Amino acid sequence: MKFSLLAILCLQGTSAFVPTAPQSKPQTSSALNILTKGLWSDLPPFPTDEPFKRIQGGGTVMTWPMPLDAERVEMMFRSSGRPMKVTVQLWVGPLRQTHNMSIDLENGAITPYRSVLKFKKGVGPVLRVITTDQVEFPMEAAISVPSKERSAIIGKSTTALFDAADKLLIQGGDIQGKPFGKSGGVGGAVRTYPIPTEVNQIQVICWSRDTGSKSLKCKIELLQGPNNVKQNYDLQVSGSHQPFTCVFQCPGPGYQIRIKNKKFVEDGLFQTAIIPYNG
C-alpha cells in the first residue's frame, strides 16, 4: 500500500519536468511612435519677413510689451553657429510671471529655437529675453505678434493636433525635485521618444487641459546618441489656458526627445503630444 502511494506521487511529480510551449504574453510598451497615425503638423511657418535683432551675450536684457488685444506671440532665436544660452520670461505686471523657459543649445544655427506663447487677452504682458552665456556668444531674436486671423489659425491648429495625436501622461514626483523612492534627482516621470530618421523637425505640445489644468514644470532634452544632449530646455508655464507649443530641430539620425516632470505628484500631471513638422 505504501509502495503504491509512493509510486503515484512519483508519477505525479514527473509532470513538472514535461517540456511545455512558452505562453505568449501581451506586449505592452509606453513608447510613442509619432508616425503611427500619419499625422503631420500644419502649424504655419514663422514669418519670413520678420527682422532679427542682435542681442549681445553676458546678461543682456531686452523686453517687448504685448498689445492689449493680442493673445499670442511667436518667437525665433538663433546664433551664428556658437552655443546659445537664453532665458525667456512672460510677465504680467511687476510680480507675476506666467512663463519661464531656459534654453541651452550646442549650436544655435543648426538647431534654432521657435515657439508660440499663449496668454490672456487684455492683460498686456511683457516678453523678457535675457542672455545667460558669455559676452562672446551673442544671439539673434525675432519676435512677431500674429494678426487676429493668424492667431486663430495657430490656436485651431494646436488644439486639433493635440486632440488627434497620441499622448502620454507625465506624472510628477513624490516631492518637488525628487522622483519616487529616490533621495535625489530631478522630478517625477521620465518619458523618452525616438525620432524617426526621416523626421527633421517636430512640434511638441505640453498641456494640462485634461489633467487638472494646473501649471506644469518640466525639463526637455533632445539627444543624438545614448546620452549626447544637443538641446536642453527648462520649462515652467501656467495651466490649461496656456499650452506650450514649440518646434524643435532634429537634424541627422539617432535623435530622441526626453521629457522629465519636475513638479509634485498632486498637481504635476500633464500630457505631451509630439507631431512631425514639415514647415
From TrEMBL:
Keywords: Signal. The lineage of its organism: Eukaryota, Sar, Stramenopiles, Ochrophyta, Bacillariophyta. Residues 1-16 form the signal peptide. Pfam families: DiatomPyrShell. This is Uncharacterized protein. InterPro entries: DiatomPyrShell.
